Amino acid sequence: MFTHRVVAALLLGVTAVAAVPAAAAVEVEGATNQKNACSTFKQKYPDYTFLPNSPGYIWETQGHYWSATLAQSPACVFVPQNENHVSWAVSTLTLTSTKFAVRGGGHMPIPGYNNIDSPGVLLSTSNLTTLTLSRDKSVVSVGPGNRWRDVYAYLQPSGLAAIGGRVGKVGVPGLLLGGGISFYSNQYGFAADNVVKYQVVLASGSVVEATATNSYSDLFWALKGGGNSFAIVTRFDLRTVKSPQVWVGIAQYDQSQAQKYLDAVYNFGKYGSLDSKAAIIPTIVTFPGMNVTAYAAAKFYDSTVNNPKPFENFTAPNIMTVADSYALQPLSTYIASTDPLQPDYLRQEFRVMSSIVSRDAVQLIHDTFLSQVYAKLSNIAGIQASLTFQPVTKEFIRQGINNGGNPQGVDISKAPYFWMVENWSWTDEADDDTVYAFAKGITADIMKMLKKKGLAADYLYMNDAGKGQEIFQHYPPANLARLKQIRAKYDPLKIYTALLTGGWKVSQA
Ligand SMILES: *[C@@H]1O[C@H](CO)[C@@H](O)[C@H](O)[C@H]1NC(C)=O
Ligand SMILES: *[C@@H]1O[C@H](CO)[C@@H](O)[C@H](O)[C@H]1NC(C)=O
Ligand SMILES: *[C@@H]1O[C@H](CO)[C@@H](O)[C@H](O)[C@H]1NC(C)=O
Ligand SMILES: *[C@@H]1O[C@H](CO)[C@@H](O)[C@H](O)[C@H]1NC(C)=O
C-alpha cells in the first residue's frame, strides 16, 4: 500500500506523501495502474460502474450535459450512492494515479471541466440526490446530484426557498463552489454565503463536515468560492428563507427600444440597492443569420405584494414592451417554465467581464459586442449570441462580509458593479475554434477599452468564465495566498489539482 502511495506521489510530481487513512486504502489493494482502475470499480461495485457502450454509460455520458462541447468518452463512469462510495473512489483513483472528472449538473460548457476522455474516469453525482429539511425547516440538506429546479420544487410546498441559481438545469455543486449569483443575492449575498455546513470527501478519503466554527472552518471558508481544489462535496446544508411566492417573469422589447433599455439597465445598476428584494437579469440576444436582436429582462421581486417601483424603467410608459410574463407565482413554477429556454445540446461558450456602473460602459459594451458579432460571426451555422448585464449592489457584497466573508473578497468600496456574461451557441463542431478565438478576442478588446476609460472592475465571476480567463488572479492577493495554504493543508498530494483535472485551480493562479 505504501508503495502505491509513493508511486502515485511520484507520478503526480510531488514529494510529500500524505497519510492515507488505512480504512480508505485497504479496499484498493491490487489496483496498480490506471488501466485497471475501471476493473477495480467494476469488480467492487458492478451495479454502479458503467463501461463503454452499456446503456448506463451512454445515459451518463450523453444524457446529462447542457452543451455538446462536453461530449467525451471516459474509460468508465462510476455512480456513487453515498459519500463512502465517493471516498472509496477517490482512494482508488489516487492509488492508481487515474485522472478523473466529477459531474454535478453538467452545465459548465468548457470541455474537460465536468467530463473526461479515457483513460480518465467520470464520477457521476446522478444518485447523490439527498433532499431533506431539518425538523425546524431552517436548513435543507442537498446532495450534489440535484439541480436548482429540484431544490426549489422540494421546498415549495413548505413556502421556502434556498439561495440558489436562476436557471433550473444548473447543478447545485458547480454554482455553489464558484460563489453563485441568485435572484436573492441583493438580500443574502452569494449563494455560497448561505451554506451552513459542507459534508466533504477530503483527498485522503476521509469524510468530514466543515462549518464556520468547527475545526474545518478554514476549509469551510475556502469552499465558499474557491472552486474544486479542496474537496469533493457530498452534501450541502443550506439555510432556507421564507419565499412562498414571488413576482417574477420576463419582459421583452424590440430594437426600437434599445437606448431606453440601456438607460434602464444603467439606472437599475445605480439604484438597484434601494429595494433589495428586487433583482433583474437584462439579456440582449442576437441572431446574426436573421439580422434580429431582441432585448429582454427577467424581473424578480421577493414578496407576494408587488412593488413596481424598482422596475419602472423596464415597464410602460417609460419603455414599450412586446410581451411581459411578470406574475405572482412560486419560484419553482417560473424555474420550470423557463428551463426549456436554454435548449440542450447546442455548442456553448461563455465569457465573463466586469465594470463599474456607468452609462458609457453599458453603451460601449453593447455596441462593441453587437458590431463585432455581426462583422465576424454571421456565417457560423446556427449562431446566437447574448450579452447579460448582472447588476451587483453594495448590499449583495455586504451580505457576504457580514456572513464571515468569502474568498472572492469583492471590493465593496467600488460597488455597485455590472458583472457581464457573453454567451455564444452554435451547431457545428467545425466552428468551435472560430467561436473560441472570437470570444477570447472580443472579451480582451472590451476589457481593454473599459480599462482605458477607468470603467473596468476587477472581480471576475468564476461560473460565467471561459477557458483560460484568470479567476483567482482577481481575488485579493491575501485571499489567494490563504486559499493556496488551505489547499496544501488538505491535499498535499494535489489529488484534486493534478488528477481532478477540470476547473480553475488555486495552485495554478
Ligand atoms: C440510482 O438510484 C435509483 C433509485 O433511486 C436506481 O433505480 C438506479 O439504478 C440508480 N442508478 C445507478 C446508476 O446506480
Ligand atoms: C439589419 O437590421 C437593421 C435594423 O433592424 C437594418 O438597419 C439593417 O439594414 C439590416 N441589415 C441587413 C443586412 O439587412
Ligand atoms: C428610472 O430612471 C430615472 C432616470 O430616467 C431615474 O431617475 C430613476 O431613479 C430610475 N428609477 C429606478 C427605480 O431606477
Ligand atoms: C449564459 O451563460 C451563463 C454562464 O453562467 C449561463 O448560466 C447561462 O445559462 C447562459 N445563458 C444562456 C441563455 O445560454
TrEMBL record:
<dbReference type="Pfam" id="PF01565">
    <property type="entry name" value="FAD_binding_4"/>
</dbReference>
<dbReference type="InterPro" id="IPR050416">
    <property type="entry name" value="FAD-linked_Oxidoreductase"/>
</dbReference>
<keyword id="KW-0732">Signal</keyword>
<feature type="signal peptide">
    <location>
        <begin position="1"/>
        <end position="19"/>
    </location>
</feature>
<dbReference type="InterPro" id="IPR036318">
    <property type="entry name" value="FAD-bd_PCMH-like_sf"/>
</dbReference>
<dbReference type="InterPro" id="IPR016166">
    <property type="entry name" value="FAD-bd_PCMH"/>
</dbReference>
<comment type="similarity">
    <text>Belongs to the oxygen-dependent FAD-linked oxidoreductase family.</text>
</comment>
<dbReference type="GO" id="GO:0071949">
    <property type="term" value="F:FAD binding"/>
</dbReference>
<protein>
    <submittedName>
        <fullName>FAD binding domain-containing protein</fullName>
    </submittedName>
</protein>
<dbReference type="InterPro" id="IPR006094">
    <property type="entry name" value="Oxid_FAD_bind_N"/>
</dbReference>
<feature type="domain" description="FAD-binding PCMH-type">
    <location>
        <begin position="70"/>
        <end position="243"/>
    </location>
</feature>
<keyword id="KW-0285">Flavoprotein</keyword>
<keyword id="KW-0560">Oxidoreductase</keyword>
<keyword id="KW-0274">FAD</keyword>
<dbReference type="GO" id="GO:0016491">
    <property type="term" value="F:oxidoreductase activity"/>
</dbReference>
<dbReference type="InterPro" id="IPR016169">
    <property type="entry name" value="FAD-bd_PCMH_sub2"/>
</dbReference>
